[in-house]
Amino acid sequence: MKTLNHLRFYVGTYTDAPSTSKGIANITLDPATGELTRSEDRTSLRNPSYLTTTGDGLYSFSEISQEDGAALQFSSNIGNTFLPIAGDYPCHVDIKAPYLAVANYGSGNVSVYLLDDNGRPLHAVADLYEEGFGSNADRQAAPHAHQVTFLAHADQLAVVDLGSDRVRFYQFDNSNDRHSFQLAQSIAMPAGSGPRHLVFNHNETRAYVVCELSETLVVLTKHDGIWHITQQCELLPGVESGEAASAIRLSGDEKYLYVSCRAQNKISAFDVSGEQPIHLNAYDCHGDFPRDLTVSTDGQWLIVANQHSNNIVSFHRNHETGEIAPTGHQCSVDAPVCLVEICLMEDVG
């Protein structure tokens, strides 16, 4: 008999001491219980802090300075490809064929690469950089690109810049091998908010932005092709900001939103099924410093990577209410900072 559908997750980590991680870890979730089991590591790589996958393979990088060898890595059945990154401390990667984009936090620029038909990165075709700074002198003295996301329904790349309090949209043209990226809109976020990551609804008419420094949720709405700020609310109402909000995820049915708050060790949940986000609850992350989280593709589970306590924890998720409950299961991974799911079909007898 075949067909027990397991869930597998690749885990990006920090490998520099005191961490003992070697690179990209591999864990499996039992869909009957939520139990997490660590498998053999996927690949060795220094500080692979963010990952993404396609049918072609697995993409990551080393989050280090350009001087120390910041590089993009593509792993596939035909081997590994490495390309140097012209930027410092890359922190996010996204793909929309024929392009791959990398956000470089330290240098503030975005590196765009051309992919071949097998998904292998060939060479850089664009370097995007905008001057800017914010009101937080300690964190915003210069641009800090923190996320890159290609839109599904438009030839655009969204860039979230924590350093200059901006969300930017670049229009790109790959006709006739032009590889042109032009700034189409630059949205000024609330001063000192430090936007970190965003998620879009399926139609890409609304975006939810988690702001790291202000620990707020900002809603962007698109009207006549232009994005506008329409809502702003606290991630943890009545709680002092720790300037450390992190990951954001939208449920597949677009009804519920989850955000990790690292300073308070909380997962904040919102009902976003209506016109305005409604705060539902804040949950203990069962660890220290929840760097990343993800909602499984079947919607049943929420998985949290706690960077400082070196553990990954599973929660069962209620489809109807959006509430989450700890399963009591966890596994150990040193300095986990990114979770990417892959569905896995296994023989079970």
TrEMBL record:
Swiss-Prot/TrEMBL keywords: Carbohydrate metabolism, Glucose metabolism
GO BP terms, alphabetized: glucose metabolic process
Keyword field contains NADP: no
Taxonomy, superkingdom: Bacteria
An MF annotation (GO) of this entry: 6-phosphogluconolactonase activity
InterPro entries the record matches: Cycloisomerase_2 (IPR050282), Haem_d1_sf (IPR011048), Lactonase_7-beta_prop (IPR019405), WD40/YVTN_repeat-like_dom_sf (IPR015943)
This protein's record includes keyword DNA-binding: no
Family that this chain belongs to: Belongs to the cycloisomerase 2 family.
Stated name of the protein: 6-phosphogluconolactonase
